Amino acid sequence: MKTKRLYYYLPKNLIAQESVYPRDRSKLLVFDKRKSKIVHDNFFNLKKYLKKDDILVFNDTKVIPARLLGKRYKGGRPIEIFLLKKLKNGNWKCLVGGKRRHLVERIEFQGSKLIAKIVKKLDNGIWQISFNIKGDRFWREIKKIGFIPTPPYIKKEIQAEKAKKGYYQTVYAKKEGSVAAPTAGFHFTQRLIKELKKKGIDIVFVTLHVGLGTFMPIKERRVEEHKMHPEYFKLNKYTADFLNKAKNDKRRIIAVGTTTARALEFCAATPLPRRKKNLLIPFSGETNLFIKPGYKFKIIDGLISNFHLPYSTLLLLVSAFIGEKDGLKKIKEIYKEAIKKKYRFYSFGDAMFIK
Q1: Residue 200's CB: how many other CB atoms inside 10 A?
Q2: How far apart, in whole angstroms, are the C-alpha atoms of residue 291 and residue 313?
């Protein structure tokens, strides 16, 4: 597939710059795959489209203050470090902003004793960085000086007080490790979650720490040439057993977000010891599963998602879930309808439920 097929036109005024309040007041587009039918509603009415005994699976990852603004030790020029992934040797994979990056260069941060050094250049514009502070002290410094990162299309800086109150977190965020939020979950409020549970809908969690694998756009000429960056995730035994039983009982499993979908499908698609056909196996490690049209889903029966960027792997995953062959064509038609109805797009935008 040529990557240029992933383009669609979106008016700039439909790129949401902030969440609606309350969050469940966002719009909801419901697409029924079997009937090929679209319904327009609000997210607080999600329970209308769910059945008793449905299961929602959330990603409970929490965004870390991964954006560090520092200065070079010599000359004082500003330099930005974006934490991506901690390595086994205690160093970090990072994106490094600014020009003329030098190896073993010292980078200091105002109001902190933290010092960073550029160790070596890795692939795809990523650098390995060492820090002079490790362990819990490192995390305390990061939380003191770091900023919660937001996508480049968000032009409004999130104020510190808003960030502290979880403005760029889901209401159920718990396990720190992501450098971007699993934004499909933004639409859920505590009130809505209570209503869903009251209806008899079960809620369980996986953890996938969002990194480059999720938000790196496809730059190659052909989709098949794109390599997904691995991301850490965990599916524990309790959740795996619960979902296996639910699958055998013919209950619907609905993934909240593409990260949740990838975690679940990886555990079903990977040939692990003593695996049973189409059943989940507990797993803790990394996944670089690339889901695109032609992929046959084994676990999820429904998907709640935002509206995604052109040239993104997320757009391909949603296309694959809509249809094995014509999914990309169909998602473009759905997006065109959403644009016509003035839906808000991307991280802080509106939602769609595909069932």
Answers
A1: 11
A2: 8
The overall pTM is greater than 0.85: yes
pLDDT tens digits for 87-115? 988 899 999 886 666 665 789 998 899 99
Query: Mean pLDDT over all residues of the chain?
Result: 91
Output the CA–CA distances (angstroms, integers) from residue 62 to 163, 174, 176, 181, 202, in the order listed. 12, 6, 4, 7, 21
* Residue 221: inside a domain: yes
Tokens of 302: 């429904």
CB atoms inside a 10 Å sphere around CB 326 = 12
Domain of residue 7: give its range: 3-63+168-354
C-alpha dihedral (291, 322, 238, 84), degrees to nearest 10: 40
Judging by DSSP bridges, how do beta strands 231-235 and 283-287 pair with one another? antiparallel
User: If phi over 0 gives left and psi between -120 and 50 gives alpha, with beta otherwise, what is residue 91?
Assistant: beta
Provide the 10 A C-beta neighbour count for residue 25.
14
Regarding whether 172 and 120 lie in a shared domain, the answer is no
Paired sense of beta strands 175-178 and 92-96, if any: unpaired
